[in-house]
Amino acid sequence: MFHGSMVALVTPFKDGAVDFNALKKLVEWHIAEGTTALVPVGTTGESPTLTHAEHEQVIKTVVTTAAGRVPVIAGAGSNNTTEAIRFVEYAKSVGAEAALVVTPYYNKPTQRGLIAHFAALDDIGLPIFIYNIPPRSVVDMLPATMGELAKLPNIIGVKDATADLSRVPKQRITCGKDFIQLSGEDATAVGFNAQGGVGCISVTANVAPKLCAEMQAATLAGDYAKALDYQDRLMPLHEAIFAEPGVCGAKYGLSLLGHCAEDVRLPLTMLTDATKAQIEAAMRHAGLL
Predict the structure, then answer these.
(1) Which of 60, 90, 92, 159 is catalytic?
(2) Residue 82 lies in a domain
(3) Is 159 a catalytic residue?
(4) How far is 252 from 288, CA to CA, in rounded Å?
(5) What total number of domains does the chain contain?
């Protein structure tokens, strides 16, 4: 169920509010373009600036609109275990197929604390992907710790945004070959799959869903020459989108394609003209404009 190109879906805004009509249209577009799973209200979904009510309504809207055609992995992370439990329970109640839970940020738990946090979420009964992104959370879940969590029935995989390709074989050893390893970093996604990964939760897929889906399909078919051709087209876009915070770049790219406004919430700001020009050039290089 969980493989290929999965989009770290943006949350579109209009006049400061969530634009649910645009969100529904994005879901339909992604499914038509070959996206294999939808991941709402992660970092790219601007979860830090959504209210709890908005967070939950976005998940419900995506699940309802997808209507079982592709799985939904609902963002449900928090540095407060009680709050994370609430989000995972809600995702389960509305029919999400899994939850994406980031390692608790800011309060810097120990490895023992990470195990306790995820063990509490495991009890809810919804499949969970660990989201390991040390540059943002300042906590790195070590492969040995992940291996302990992989023994739990509902801890089924990881979104690995360490950009360390050696983590994939290390986690195959500690977690087992059936543990679902997904890249969380577009620029290294091809190499990630070569090491044993089976997909990517992608920011670039917001703007180039078809290209990302076809690139992932090539890697899973073992055709890395074809995958490299796609990556050559996409690499400037990976870099351009992250010249400033990725959600800002993704929303600007989507605005050029007419899918949603480029609006973000403070403390994020609109892109500089230089970054906009870089994204436009990268989209032309990829054949999107």
Answers:
(1) 159
(2) yes
(3) yes
(4) 13
(5) 1
